[in-house]
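Quick log. Single chain, no ligands specified.
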Amino acid sequence: MGRSVARRLAVLAVSAAVVSSVGAAPPSSGAAGAGSGGGSGTAEKVPVAVGYGGAVASVDADASAAGVEILRKGGNAVDAAVATAAALGVTEPYSSGIGGGGYFVYYDAKSRTVHTIDGRETAPLTADSGLFLEDGKPIPFADAVTSGLGVGTPGTPATWQTALGSWGSKGLGSLLRPAERLAREGFTVDDTFRSQTASNEARFRNFPDTADLFLPGGSLPVVGSTFKNPDLARTYQKLGREGVGALYRGELARDIVDTVNEPPVDPASGYNARPGNLSTKDLAKYRAKRQAPTKTSYRGLGVYSIAPSSSGGTTVGEALNILEKTDLSTASDVEYLHRYIEASRIAFADRGRWVGDPAFEDVPTKELLSQRFADSRECLIKDDAVLTSPLAPGDPRDPAACGAGGKAAPTTYEGENTTHLTAADKWGNVVAYTLTIEQTGGSGITVPDRGFILNNELTDFSFAPASPDVHDPNLPGPGKRPRSSISPTIVLDGHSKPVVALGSPGGATIITTVLQTLTGFVDRGLPLVDAIAAPRASQRNQTTTELEPGLWDSPLRGRLEAIGHGFRQNPEIGAATGVQRLPDGKWLAAAEPERRGGGSAMVVRPAR
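-> predicted structure:
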């Protein structure tokens, strides 16, 4: 590790110890109504906690408390991550749940190695490149979103099974109990949960089962009321008793298939929900994949993340490699943001051309992450000018200095309301786990009597090629995983010990959020919670860069515009969480102070 980076990280560790008084001991998660998806309840939400025995950070106080409860009972980071994820399925049902999928990154302290699981949803085995075409033309995006056609085979339960079977120490039934209790006894509705319900109200009313669950009594849930989901409690109880195989075979699997293929629409609504073509064979054949992580060396640190089918690891890694030659620690704020934006633009140009499901596409993962390729792209960046988007991709297999060839591939839309959690235990194991049902409210279709919404992840596929002469690696195919931007990341020092782990929701902005947070923490010397809270910019090979209000209203915007940058405003980008290893066995957990109602950082035993 470079001496300057090591010094900055040491300073950050000291400053982290100073904020330990912020972290309060979480109350027992056995109490009902302990907060909602971004809400308030008996479990206090704080963005930073420092202490011993392990740590959990998520967007929700109940979910973090569920993970800490498992750590207190002797569970490890994997156990805590599964318990936290299950609780998020209760309190964050519009962003996660057993009807969706995700990506799991795990650091094993004993072997000092990083492992990953691809739990991405898959297209039906009958799907082809024309999945979203009618009469040769793409169907309207909104029609695909709220339909059976956009639903992929769920991967979240299989991810839990794979993680627990590989590295867990407790049975699934015991890990689901906090979430089962939360679903049965309820949680307190807050402004975020109500507003997310309101934004989905019109389409939820098209489906009686969804409306009955999320619009109790026919109305929006009232802030301060208790929201219960007894159907989900029974579903969790079934999975805990029979194992996750119960979702992929048998009665529950048939319920999922029937719901996808004949969406239960209210006849009076007049809504035409396009049917899917999912089969019980699709569910029975689904497997979460254990695979090697991506690895990038940055400032002497090892940056590990998820490999394709997600583009997160390759795109964050390429951007870091592009930034490697620039001393961002001494750069001005304008210079830093300019370089960060341009590195993002270039990495997204290459992502669009080269990254898809490696079971179907020849993805040059190693070459995309090579420093040689990054150097051939870095030389495109000028200090006094801005690259034009959409930028054409480079060729990682035959990199030419400042070279680009072919036509640019557009950045496909990805739903923004995923959720991320991070967990660590007293033994030093760490998990970074991002899970999703795609956009807020997924498909909007609830499996009758089962209490969970189905995903609409297949809309992450390209509906049609950008042009006939451009190969698109992200077209649908039988059993294919759509490309994702999910980027759960674990950073190790030169001794292969964890420095920090983090991730974020936010669709395609996940990549830029993780990149900006990492460079803010490693290069700019920001404490982790400040790096998470910093106002964000997101450039994804588009004509303009998105800015949060903190940058939009800043003098920095005018100074960047003078170079040639163009901007549009985005009120909120991402909602990250992270954990940081501190000296003497302590952990720092950090979450969003404000975005999505703020997050929840907890430790087992707060430092005094």
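The chain has a mean pLDDT of 92.
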